[in-house]
What does this fold into?
Amino acid sequence: MKKVVKFGGSSLASAEQFKKVGAIIRADGTRRYVVPSAPGKRFSEDTKVTDLLYACYRAANEEIFQKVLAEIKSRYQEIIDGLELSLSLEEDFKILEENFKRQIGEEYAASRGEYLNGKIMAAYLGFTFIDPAEMIRFDGNGQFDAEITEALVAKRLKDVTEAVVPGFYGAKENGEIKTFSRGGSDITGSIIAGALDVELYENWTDVSGVMVTDPRIINNPKSIDTITYRELRELSYMGATVLHEDAIFPVRKAGIPINIKNTNAPEEDGTMIVEDTCKKPPYTITGIAGKKGFCSLFIEKSMMNSEIGFGRKVLQVLEEQGISFEHVPSGIDTMTIFIHQDEFAEKEQQVIAGIHRAVNPDYMELETDLSLIAVVGRGMRSNRGTAARIFAALAHANVNVRMIDQGSSELNVIVGVKDEDFEPAIKAIYDIFVETQV
Ligand code: ASP
It folds into this structure.
Protein backbone atom coordinates (compact mmCIF):
# COMPACT_ATOMS: atom_id res chain seq x y z
CA MET A 1 0.00 0.00 0.00
CA LYS A 2 1.21 3.49 -0.74
CA LYS A 3 -0.13 6.99 -0.31
CA VAL A 4 0.67 10.38 -1.71
CA VAL A 5 0.63 13.06 0.98
CA LYS A 6 0.48 16.73 0.15
CA PHE A 7 1.11 19.41 2.77
CA GLY A 8 -0.11 22.96 2.33
CA GLY A 9 1.83 26.13 3.06
CA SER A 10 0.59 26.65 6.61
CA SER A 11 1.61 23.07 7.45
CA LEU A 12 5.17 23.96 6.41
CA ALA A 13 5.51 27.56 7.49
CA SER A 14 7.99 26.96 10.33
CA ALA A 15 10.29 24.35 11.84
CA GLU A 16 7.62 23.59 14.40
CA GLN A 17 5.12 22.81 11.64
CA PHE A 18 7.74 20.73 9.79
CA LYS A 19 8.15 18.62 12.92
CA LYS A 20 4.43 17.88 13.02
CA VAL A 21 4.59 16.89 9.36
CA GLY A 22 7.63 14.68 9.99
CA ALA A 23 5.76 12.90 12.80
CA ILE A 24 2.73 12.36 10.58
CA ILE A 25 4.83 10.83 7.80
CA ARG A 26 6.84 8.64 10.13
CA ALA A 27 3.69 7.39 11.85
CA ASP A 28 2.59 5.57 8.68
CA GLY A 29 5.07 3.77 6.45
CA THR A 30 2.70 3.91 3.49
CA ARG A 31 3.08 7.72 3.29
CA ARG A 32 5.81 7.40 0.72
CA TYR A 33 5.42 10.26 -1.73
CA VAL A 34 5.40 13.72 -0.23
CA VAL A 35 4.33 16.85 -2.07
CA PRO A 36 5.16 20.07 -0.19
CA SER A 37 3.92 23.60 -0.81
CA ALA A 38 6.09 26.65 -0.21
CA PRO A 39 6.14 28.01 3.37
CA GLY A 40 2.85 29.80 3.98
CA LYS A 41 1.83 32.24 6.68
CA ARG A 42 3.09 31.68 10.24
CA PHE A 43 0.48 34.09 11.62
CA SER A 44 -2.40 35.92 10.00
CA GLU A 45 -0.52 39.11 8.95
CA ASP A 46 2.47 37.15 7.66
CA THR A 47 3.36 36.92 3.94
CA LYS A 48 3.52 33.64 2.02
CA VAL A 49 6.94 32.90 0.57
CA THR A 50 5.34 32.58 -2.88
CA ASP A 51 4.18 36.20 -2.61
CA LEU A 52 7.63 37.29 -1.46
CA LEU A 53 9.12 35.56 -4.49
CA TYR A 54 6.80 37.35 -6.90
CA ALA A 55 7.67 40.67 -5.24
CA CYS A 56 11.37 39.89 -5.24
CA TYR A 57 11.36 38.96 -8.91
CA ARG A 58 9.60 42.18 -9.89
CA ALA A 59 12.13 44.16 -7.89
CA ALA A 60 15.12 42.29 -9.37
CA ASN A 61 16.72 45.46 -10.63
CA GLU A 62 15.61 47.77 -7.88
CA GLU A 63 17.17 48.74 -4.62
CA ILE A 64 14.86 46.72 -2.37
CA PHE A 65 15.76 43.48 -4.15
CA GLN A 66 18.43 42.43 -1.62
CA LYS A 67 16.10 43.21 1.26
CA VAL A 68 13.29 40.98 -0.05
CA LEU A 69 15.77 38.27 -0.99
CA ALA A 70 17.22 38.36 2.52
CA GLU A 71 13.73 37.97 3.95
CA ILE A 72 13.12 34.89 1.79
CA LYS A 73 16.49 33.41 2.75
CA SER A 74 15.77 33.94 6.42
CA ARG A 75 12.41 32.16 6.16
CA TYR A 76 14.18 29.02 4.93
CA GLN A 77 17.14 29.39 7.26
CA GLU A 78 14.81 29.59 10.24
CA ILE A 79 13.32 26.23 9.25
CA ILE A 80 16.72 24.63 8.60
CA ASP A 81 18.06 25.83 11.95
CA GLY A 82 14.92 24.82 13.82
CA LEU A 83 15.24 21.31 12.41
CA GLU A 84 18.97 21.25 13.16
CA LEU A 85 19.84 20.25 9.62
CA SER A 86 23.27 20.79 8.14
CA LEU A 87 21.77 21.56 4.73
CA SER A 88 22.92 24.71 2.92
CA LEU A 89 20.80 26.41 0.25
CA GLU A 90 23.54 28.89 -0.60
CA GLU A 91 24.29 27.43 -4.01
CA ASP A 92 20.55 27.32 -4.88
CA PHE A 93 20.11 30.95 -3.86
CA LYS A 94 23.10 31.97 -6.00
CA ILE A 95 21.46 30.42 -9.06
CA LEU A 96 18.11 31.91 -8.09
CA GLU A 97 19.61 35.40 -7.84
CA GLU A 98 21.31 35.14 -11.22
CA ASN A 99 18.10 33.93 -12.83
CA PHE A 100 16.05 36.69 -11.21
CA LYS A 101 18.52 39.31 -12.49
CA ARG A 102 18.25 37.83 -16.00
CA GLN A 103 14.46 37.98 -15.64
CA ILE A 104 14.13 34.36 -16.61
CA GLY A 105 10.36 34.32 -15.92
CA GLU A 106 7.88 35.01 -13.16
CA GLU A 107 6.71 31.41 -13.03
CA TYR A 108 10.25 30.21 -12.44
CA ALA A 109 10.45 32.72 -9.59
CA ALA A 110 7.24 31.51 -7.95
CA SER A 111 8.22 27.85 -8.32
CA ARG A 112 11.35 28.29 -6.18
CA GLY A 113 9.15 28.41 -3.07
CA GLU A 114 8.19 24.77 -3.47
CA TYR A 115 11.59 23.77 -4.88
CA LEU A 116 13.53 25.00 -1.85
CA ASN A 117 10.99 23.71 0.64
CA GLY A 118 11.17 20.33 -1.09
CA LYS A 119 14.93 20.27 -0.64
CA ILE A 120 14.54 20.88 3.10
CA MET A 121 11.79 18.28 3.37
CA ALA A 122 13.86 15.64 1.56
CA ALA A 123 16.86 16.30 3.81
CA TYR A 124 14.67 16.20 6.92
CA LEU A 125 12.95 12.93 6.01
CA GLY A 126 15.89 11.28 4.28
CA PHE A 127 13.74 10.83 1.15
CA THR A 128 14.88 11.25 -2.48
CA PHE A 129 14.33 14.76 -3.89
CA ILE A 130 12.81 14.73 -7.36
CA ASP A 131 12.40 17.93 -9.31
CA PRO A 132 8.93 17.99 -10.95
CA ALA A 133 10.50 19.86 -13.89
CA GLU A 134 11.68 16.40 -14.95
CA MET A 135 8.21 14.92 -15.20
CA ILE A 136 5.29 17.36 -14.89
CA ARG A 137 5.01 18.44 -18.50
CA PHE A 138 3.41 21.50 -20.12
CA ASP A 139 3.06 21.77 -23.90
CA GLY A 140 4.38 24.56 -26.12
CA ASN A 141 1.30 26.68 -25.40
CA GLY A 142 1.74 26.29 -21.68
CA GLN A 143 -1.15 23.81 -21.30
CA PHE A 144 -0.67 20.96 -18.86
CA ASP A 145 -0.09 17.69 -20.76
CA ALA A 146 -1.71 14.95 -18.69
CA GLU A 147 -0.78 12.03 -20.89
CA ILE A 148 2.94 12.64 -21.18
CA THR A 149 3.13 13.60 -17.50
CA GLU A 150 1.48 10.40 -16.38
CA ALA A 151 3.97 8.32 -18.33
CA LEU A 152 6.95 10.35 -17.11
CA VAL A 153 5.88 10.22 -13.46
CA ALA A 154 5.22 6.48 -13.55
CA LYS A 155 8.62 5.87 -15.14
CA ARG A 156 10.63 8.24 -12.93
CA LEU A 157 9.13 7.04 -9.65
CA LYS A 158 8.92 3.33 -10.51
CA ASP A 159 11.93 2.34 -8.48
CA VAL A 160 11.91 5.18 -5.98
CA THR A 161 10.30 3.97 -2.80
CA GLU A 162 10.22 7.28 -0.91
CA ALA A 163 10.34 10.66 -2.56
CA VAL A 164 9.69 14.34 -2.08
CA VAL A 165 8.26 16.03 -5.17
CA PRO A 166 7.68 19.80 -4.80
CA GLY A 167 4.20 20.96 -5.76
CA PHE A 168 2.90 23.76 -7.97
CA TYR A 169 5.15 23.53 -11.03
CA GLY A 170 6.55 21.57 -13.91
CA ALA A 171 8.26 22.48 -17.16
CA LYS A 172 7.89 22.60 -20.91
CA GLU A 173 9.95 20.21 -22.95
CA ASN A 174 12.58 22.92 -23.47
CA GLY A 175 13.00 23.21 -19.69
CA GLU A 176 11.09 26.47 -19.22
CA ILE A 177 9.43 26.36 -15.78
CA LYS A 178 5.63 26.64 -15.68
CA THR A 179 3.39 26.83 -12.65
CA PHE A 180 -0.24 25.91 -12.15
CA SER A 181 -2.54 28.63 -10.87
CA ARG A 182 -2.29 29.63 -7.20
CA GLY A 183 -2.89 26.80 -4.77
CA GLY A 184 -1.66 24.41 -7.46
CA SER A 185 0.32 22.06 -5.23
CA ASP A 186 -2.99 20.27 -4.72
CA ILE A 187 -2.90 19.47 -8.44
CA THR A 188 0.65 18.09 -8.28
CA GLY A 189 -0.37 15.74 -5.45
CA SER A 190 -3.33 14.55 -7.44
CA ILE A 191 -1.27 13.98 -10.57
CA ILE A 192 1.36 11.93 -8.71
CA ALA A 193 -1.35 9.91 -6.95
CA GLY A 194 -3.13 9.22 -10.25
CA ALA A 195 0.03 8.28 -12.14
CA LEU A 196 1.24 5.90 -9.43
CA ASP A 197 -2.24 4.52 -8.85
CA VAL A 198 -1.88 4.73 -5.08
CA GLU A 199 -4.63 3.76 -2.63
CA LEU A 200 -5.18 7.19 -1.16
CA TYR A 201 -4.28 10.82 -1.73
CA GLU A 202 -4.00 12.63 1.60
CA ASN A 203 -4.21 16.38 1.43
CA TRP A 204 -3.03 17.95 4.69
CA THR A 205 -4.07 21.46 5.54
CA ASP A 206 -4.96 23.58 8.57
CA VAL A 207 -8.64 22.68 8.89
CA SER A 208 -10.25 19.35 9.72
CA GLY A 209 -11.77 18.82 6.30
CA VAL A 210 -14.41 20.44 4.16
CA MET A 211 -16.89 22.46 6.19
CA VAL A 212 -20.62 22.44 5.59
CA THR A 213 -20.33 26.15 4.92
CA ASP A 214 -17.99 29.11 5.11
CA PRO A 215 -16.62 29.63 8.66
CA ARG A 216 -16.57 33.37 8.02
CA ILE A 217 -20.37 33.23 7.91
CA ILE A 218 -21.14 30.47 10.39
CA ASN A 219 -18.98 30.32 13.47
CA ASN A 220 -17.35 26.89 13.73
CA PRO A 221 -19.49 25.04 11.16
CA LYS A 222 -19.70 21.26 11.16
CA SER A 223 -17.25 19.46 8.90
CA ILE A 224 -18.31 16.95 6.29
CA ASP A 225 -17.09 13.38 6.80
CA THR A 226 -17.77 12.04 3.31
CA ILE A 227 -18.48 13.97 0.14
CA THR A 228 -18.60 12.88 -3.49
CA TYR A 229 -16.44 14.44 -6.19
CA ARG A 230 -19.55 15.84 -7.84
CA GLU A 231 -20.79 17.48 -4.68
CA LEU A 232 -17.39 18.97 -4.04
CA ARG A 233 -17.22 20.25 -7.59
CA GLU A 234 -20.52 22.10 -7.09
CA LEU A 235 -19.36 23.57 -3.79
CA SER A 236 -15.90 24.53 -5.08
CA TYR A 237 -17.39 26.22 -8.08
CA MET A 238 -19.53 28.29 -5.77
CA GLY A 239 -16.64 29.38 -3.62
CA ALA A 240 -15.65 26.60 -1.19
CA THR A 241 -11.86 26.79 -1.21
CA VAL A 242 -10.46 23.78 0.57
CA LEU A 243 -9.02 22.14 -2.54
CA HIS A 244 -7.92 23.50 -5.94
CA GLU A 245 -10.67 22.80 -8.47
CA ASP A 246 -8.31 21.13 -10.94
CA ALA A 247 -7.04 18.72 -8.31
CA ILE A 248 -10.07 16.49 -8.58
CA PHE A 249 -9.71 15.25 -12.12
CA PRO A 250 -6.44 13.19 -12.01
CA VAL A 251 -7.46 11.15 -8.97
CA ARG A 252 -11.07 10.85 -9.96
CA LYS A 253 -10.02 9.36 -13.27
CA ALA A 254 -8.03 6.71 -11.40
CA GLY A 255 -10.74 6.10 -8.77
CA ILE A 256 -8.55 7.25 -5.89
CA PRO A 257 -10.23 8.89 -2.89
CA ILE A 258 -8.87 12.08 -1.36
CA ASN A 259 -8.67 12.50 2.39
CA ILE A 260 -8.50 16.10 3.61
CA LYS A 261 -6.69 16.10 6.97
CA ASN A 262 -5.55 18.62 9.55
CA THR A 263 -1.81 18.78 10.30
CA ASN A 264 -2.62 20.42 13.64
CA ALA A 265 -5.12 17.70 14.61
CA PRO A 266 -3.98 14.51 12.84
CA GLU A 267 -6.16 12.29 15.04
CA GLU A 268 -9.31 13.73 13.45
CA ASP A 269 -10.72 11.82 10.49
CA GLY A 270 -11.10 14.84 8.20
CA THR A 271 -13.15 14.57 5.03
CA MET A 272 -13.12 11.70 2.55
CA ILE A 273 -13.81 12.70 -1.04
CA VAL A 274 -15.05 9.71 -3.02
CA GLU A 275 -16.66 8.80 -6.34
CA ASP A 276 -19.79 7.54 -4.63
CA THR A 277 -20.84 6.19 -1.27
CA CYS A 278 -23.70 4.33 0.38
CA LYS A 279 -23.04 6.30 3.55
CA LYS A 280 -26.01 8.45 4.33
CA PRO A 281 -25.00 12.02 5.02
CA PRO A 282 -25.91 13.09 8.57
CA TYR A 283 -28.04 15.91 7.19
CA THR A 284 -30.18 16.12 4.08
CA ILE A 285 -27.75 18.59 2.63
CA THR A 286 -24.00 18.13 2.34
CA GLY A 287 -22.92 21.73 2.00
CA ILE A 288 -23.83 25.32 1.24
CA ALA A 289 -21.65 27.74 -0.72
CA GLY A 290 -22.23 30.95 -2.54
CA LYS A 291 -20.83 33.93 -4.34
CA LYS A 292 -21.70 37.57 -4.49
CA GLY A 293 -21.32 39.91 -7.44
CA PHE A 294 -23.76 38.74 -10.08
CA CYS A 295 -26.21 40.68 -12.18
CA SER A 296 -29.26 39.56 -14.08
CA LEU A 297 -30.46 40.59 -17.48
CA PHE A 298 -34.20 40.17 -17.84
CA ILE A 299 -35.60 39.94 -21.38
CA GLU A 300 -39.27 39.96 -22.29
CA LYS A 301 -40.88 39.43 -25.66
CA SER A 302 -44.42 38.31 -26.29
CA MET A 303 -44.66 34.98 -28.07
CA MET A 304 -41.05 34.21 -27.17
CA ASN A 305 -42.18 30.64 -26.53
CA SER A 306 -42.87 30.00 -30.19
CA GLU A 307 -39.85 31.79 -31.61
CA ILE A 308 -37.43 29.03 -32.48
CA GLY A 309 -33.79 29.89 -31.84
CA PHE A 310 -34.55 32.79 -29.49
CA GLY A 311 -32.33 31.50 -26.71
CA ARG A 312 -29.49 30.68 -29.03
CA LYS A 313 -29.50 34.15 -30.57
CA VAL A 314 -29.39 35.82 -27.17
CA LEU A 315 -26.62 33.58 -25.88
CA GLN A 316 -24.68 34.08 -29.08
CA VAL A 317 -24.48 37.80 -28.30
CA LEU A 318 -22.84 36.92 -25.00
CA GLU A 319 -20.50 34.53 -26.74
CA GLU A 320 -19.44 37.19 -29.20
CA GLN A 321 -18.61 39.50 -26.31
CA GLY A 322 -16.66 36.74 -24.55
CA ILE A 323 -19.02 36.60 -21.56
CA SER A 324 -20.01 33.38 -19.86
CA PHE A 325 -23.39 32.95 -18.22
CA GLU A 326 -24.22 31.14 -15.00
CA HIS A 327 -27.95 30.40 -15.14
CA VAL A 328 -30.78 31.04 -17.55
CA PRO A 329 -34.17 30.57 -15.91
CA SER A 330 -37.01 31.22 -18.34
CA GLY A 331 -40.77 31.78 -18.46
CA ILE A 332 -43.22 31.71 -21.35
CA ASP A 333 -42.36 35.14 -22.65
CA THR A 334 -39.35 35.88 -20.47
CA MET A 335 -35.80 34.83 -20.08
CA THR A 336 -33.29 35.93 -17.44
CA ILE A 337 -29.55 35.53 -17.69
CA PHE A 338 -27.29 35.55 -14.64
CA ILE A 339 -23.80 36.85 -15.36
CA HIS A 340 -20.74 37.82 -13.32
CA GLN A 341 -21.08 41.54 -12.76
CA ASP A 342 -17.40 42.34 -13.27
CA GLU A 343 -17.30 40.46 -16.58
CA PHE A 344 -20.42 42.22 -17.76
CA ALA A 345 -19.89 45.80 -16.55
CA GLU A 346 -17.46 46.84 -19.28
CA LYS A 347 -19.52 45.45 -22.12
CA GLU A 348 -23.06 46.00 -20.94
CA GLN A 349 -24.04 48.48 -23.65
CA GLN A 350 -22.62 46.30 -26.42
CA VAL A 351 -24.55 43.33 -25.04
CA ILE A 352 -27.82 45.25 -24.78
CA ALA A 353 -27.44 46.65 -28.30
CA GLY A 354 -26.51 43.21 -29.59
CA ILE A 355 -29.60 41.60 -28.06
CA HIS A 356 -31.80 44.34 -29.52
CA ARG A 357 -30.41 43.61 -32.95
CA ALA A 358 -30.58 39.84 -32.53
CA VAL A 359 -34.10 39.33 -31.15
CA ASN A 360 -35.82 42.71 -30.92
CA PRO A 361 -37.26 42.25 -27.40
CA ASP A 362 -40.20 44.24 -25.99
CA TYR A 363 -38.44 45.03 -22.76
CA MET A 364 -35.12 44.52 -21.00
CA GLU A 365 -34.06 45.21 -17.43
CA LEU A 366 -30.80 44.88 -15.53
CA GLU A 367 -30.53 44.09 -11.85
CA THR A 368 -27.19 44.27 -10.04
CA ASP A 369 -25.67 43.15 -6.72
CA LEU A 370 -27.09 39.67 -6.67
CA SER A 371 -25.70 36.59 -4.97
CA LEU A 372 -26.05 32.96 -5.90
CA ILE A 373 -26.20 30.34 -3.18
CA ALA A 374 -25.86 26.62 -3.91
CA VAL A 375 -27.41 24.13 -1.53
CA VAL A 376 -25.74 20.85 -2.43
CA GLY A 377 -26.36 17.29 -1.35
CA ARG A 378 -26.71 13.78 -2.72
CA GLY A 379 -29.30 13.22 0.00
CA MET A 380 -31.66 15.77 -1.52
CA ARG A 381 -32.78 13.40 -4.24
CA SER A 382 -34.33 10.94 -1.84
CA ASN A 383 -35.78 13.39 0.65
CA ARG A 384 -39.11 15.02 0.18
CA GLY A 385 -39.74 18.59 1.06
CA THR A 386 -36.16 19.81 0.81
CA ALA A 387 -37.03 22.75 -1.43
CA ALA A 388 -39.97 23.64 0.80
CA ARG A 389 -37.69 23.74 3.81
CA ILE A 390 -35.11 25.90 2.08
CA PHE A 391 -37.71 28.45 1.08
CA ALA A 392 -39.52 28.36 4.41
CA ALA A 393 -36.22 29.09 6.14
CA LEU A 394 -35.53 31.97 3.78
CA ALA A 395 -39.03 33.35 4.28
CA HIS A 396 -38.62 33.24 8.06
CA ALA A 397 -35.35 35.11 7.72
CA ASN A 398 -37.15 37.70 5.63
CA VAL A 399 -35.01 37.00 2.58
CA ASN A 400 -36.55 37.71 -0.78
CA VAL A 401 -35.74 34.98 -3.31
CA ARG A 402 -34.95 36.42 -6.76
CA MET A 403 -34.24 33.21 -8.62
CA ILE A 404 -34.54 29.45 -8.16
CA ASP A 405 -32.78 26.82 -10.22
CA GLN A 406 -32.80 23.15 -9.34
CA GLY A 407 -30.02 21.36 -11.19
CA SER A 408 -31.32 18.44 -13.20
CA SER A 409 -29.04 16.11 -11.26
CA GLU A 410 -31.12 16.98 -8.17
CA LEU A 411 -27.79 17.40 -6.50
CA ASN A 412 -28.25 21.09 -5.92
CA VAL A 413 -30.67 23.93 -5.63
CA ILE A 414 -29.39 27.36 -6.59
CA VAL A 415 -31.04 30.37 -5.05
CA GLY A 416 -30.48 33.96 -6.15
CA VAL A 417 -30.82 36.70 -3.51
CA LYS A 418 -29.70 40.31 -3.12
CA ASP A 419 -26.09 40.69 -1.95
CA GLU A 420 -27.23 42.15 1.37
CA ASP A 421 -29.26 38.99 2.04
CA PHE A 422 -26.33 36.67 1.30
CA GLU A 423 -25.16 35.98 4.87
CA PRO A 424 -28.66 35.85 6.44
CA ALA A 425 -29.76 33.42 3.73
CA ILE A 426 -26.83 31.06 4.35
CA LYS A 427 -27.39 31.25 8.10
CA ALA A 428 -31.07 30.44 7.69
CA ILE A 429 -30.39 27.40 5.47
CA TYR A 430 -27.60 26.15 7.75
CA ASP A 431 -29.84 26.49 10.79
CA ILE A 432 -32.74 24.55 9.42
CA PHE A 433 -30.72 21.65 8.02
CA VAL A 434 -27.79 21.37 10.40
CA GLU A 435 -28.60 23.00 13.71
CA THR A 436 -32.02 21.38 13.89
CA GLN A 437 -30.38 18.09 12.81
CA VAL A 438 -32.88 16.91 10.22
N1 ASP B 1 2.71 28.15 -3.14
C1 ASP B 1 1.68 28.28 -4.12
C2 ASP B 1 0.68 29.32 -3.69
O1 ASP B 1 0.86 30.01 -2.71
C3 ASP B 1 1.06 26.98 -4.47
C4 ASP B 1 0.44 26.21 -3.32
O2 ASP B 1 0.69 26.51 -2.16
O3 ASP B 1 -0.30 25.27 -3.59
O4 ASP B 1 -0.30 29.51 -4.37
User: Anything to note?
Assistant: Residues 106-125 form the longest helix (20 residues). The two ends are 38 Å apart (CA to CA). DSSP finds 14 helices and 17 strands in the chain.
